[in-house]
Amino acid sequence: MIDDLMFTTAAGTEIKLRPGQDRCVVYFGNASESVVGPDGQQHMEQEVPYVAFVGAELVLDYPPGRVALVELSHGRLKIEYRIQSESRSRILNVQCNSHADQFPVRVRHFSDVRDFLLFVREEQGFRYVVAYEGVGRVGLVKIKAGNPEARILVIKQAIAKSNDAQPAVEAGVRATDVGLNAETARNPVFLARLHLRNLELDKVAGLLTRFNMSLDETGFIITFLRLMIKNEQGRPELEQVKRQLQMLEKLYQIGGLILSGDRDGFYAALKQGMPPAVYRRVSALVSQKRAAAPGKLEEIEYWEWQYRLKQALNA
Predict the structure, then answer these.
(1) Pairing mode of beta strands 5-8, 76-83
(2) Per the confidence metrics, is the pTM higher than 0.70?
(3) What is the β-pairing status of strands 128-132 and 151-155?
(4) Could you read off the pLDDT of 232-280 as tens digits, one per residue?
């Protein structure tokens, strides 16, 4: 069993870090601090914020992923960072309910969105994601898809001839905020987000055969769909189309199996059954893959998939 780690702040407050490093207990003398948690209840264990910074232009001086004590003042943690082109440091303020003078945080820096997505896919997500404005709106949409529970803040460069650093601004990541230029019009993830926001569900389904998607792209779209199905805000318009959203999720799950050539996974999905609307889309995708097969063996493989599809429909 791993023992708890103990830290002592500059003022002598003791902080005991739990083995998972995601929670801690603050001690003033022999008494543990109790604070109000997100559920409105009193808790002794407090969350250790996990913060990601995304952008090669950002400079940080924290051990990657390891716990560091930072200043806590007036309910705000002070996380210091800098932009390469600026000489002055900036401060990210993160809310914290503890009354200690310092508090533990974990910080990781990623040079680009791709590195961030690889990490959250294989490791874990973050509570806060701070992105440099250069990642762009499409990059922000991808970050939100990869780490949907995170609060995203955007860092902007200071205006020329001004010594006032621009504060981090929370990103309302909305696909409709971006115009359809040549790049975004060829981006199936962006288009899926746009069509989902407008509840143009047929257009979302059509993207599978319109684009030669990667597994990452189908994964992002599945994440969007699951967030809408979950419907935490209780939006009535989403409740009305919940069944269609679930069918789209099924379609993209099977589509991912086809795109990855996962024969066993595809056959297992056929045994589970699928609605006729999903069958038609899946059949069209398999036909498309067969027509584009690079060799005879691959063409025969997709012919077998088509045959199994017809068997499943007539079963």
Answers:
(1) unpaired
(2) no
(3) parallel
(4) 888 899 999 999 999 999 999 999 888 888 888 888 888 888 888 888 8
